Amino acid sequence: MFETTQNDILYGRLKLLQPLNGPRVNLDTILLSAWVKIRSGHGRVLEAGCASGAISLLLVMKYNNIHVTGIDIQSELVELANINAENNNLLDKVKFINGDLRDKNILPSQYFDVLVINPPYESLTAGRKSPEHSRTTARLELTCTPHDVAEFAYRVLKSRGRLFTIFKSERLDVFLSAMKNKGIIPKRLRPVYPKMNYNSDVFLSEFIKDGGEGMNLLPPLFVRDENNNYTQEILKAYEPDGFI
Questions:
Q1: What backbone torsions phi and psi does residue 229 show, to the nearest 5 degrees?
Q2: Where are the beta strands (DSSP E) in 20-87?
Q3: What is the largest CA-CA distance in the chain?
Q4: 88 pLDDT band (50/70/90 cuts)?
Q5: Burial 16-52 (b: 16+ CB within 10 A, else e)
Q6: For tag attachment on the chain, is the N or C end more exposed, with fewer CB atoms within 10 Å?
Q7: For 174-226, where are the E strands, in sequence order?
Q8: What letter does residue 39 receive in the DSSP assignment?
Q9: pLDDT in tens, 119-162
Q10: To the nearest whole percent, how much of the chain has pLDDT over 90?
């Protein structure tokens, strides 16, 4: 088992054990959980790459009538996620399993209404590998490429099911191409900027399986203002309703 820390997430609403040196909750985690919009009747939710379970747990705290299944390739993270579910009295609303999203038999096909994923951002040729294997797996496309995400989404989502993601802006073309080639059609996209006059570093997106033509490009989301403080909209991401 990892060496862990216990942290208060969203002003203490969630108590989370997470690895000291592995993948940890960061701003991207909070942005993605705030970005997800689950419609009435969409009760079957799947999070791929769930790590220690933060997004799954935040979603079941936000939406009453859903059940979330989380899957991760790292068994020790899944163990932590299940402990976190128990510690936060949410075992009846979530289930975490160990598995590889590339395994076609790990989950039922065309079953889920919603898929949420924060996939690895970096290609294998980008940068240096971390000596911490768990962190490397979360950051580099060792086990999950945009193509893998597209294949997985098309397999597990019902027709008209929705995919919510956050991904690196400089690879927007790669990600959108992979999705559209599998019939996962972009519907909402929002670029995120560290602050004014900087390039976007990540983008939030929503896709529909077998969706029709047409996409909304939303206004930019700035993380910090001219005084280097979090913007009001970013602070809303830490509130129960998020910024959607």
A1: -95, 155
A2: 44-48, 67-72
A3: 51
A4: very high
A5: bbbbeebbbbebbbbbbbbbbebeeebbbbbbbbbbb
A6: N
A7: 184-195, 202-209, 216-217, 221-224
A8: P
A9: 997 664 555 544 554 444 444 446 689 999 999 999 999 999 99
A10: 82
Q: What is the pLDDT of residue 242?
A: 77
- The DSSP line for 106-133 is SS-TT-EEEEEE----B-TTSSPPPSSH
Q: Number of C-alpha atoms within 13 angstroms, CB side, residue 102?
A: 9
As beta bridge partners, residue 202 has: 168, 192
Amino acid 37 reads K
236 vs 31: CA distance, rounded Å: 10
Instruction: Examine the pLDDT at 244 and tell me if it is beyond 70.
Output: no
Other CB atoms within a 10 A radius of the CB of residue 213 amount to 5
CA dist list (Å): 49 to 73, 134, 138, 216: 7, 12, 8, 27
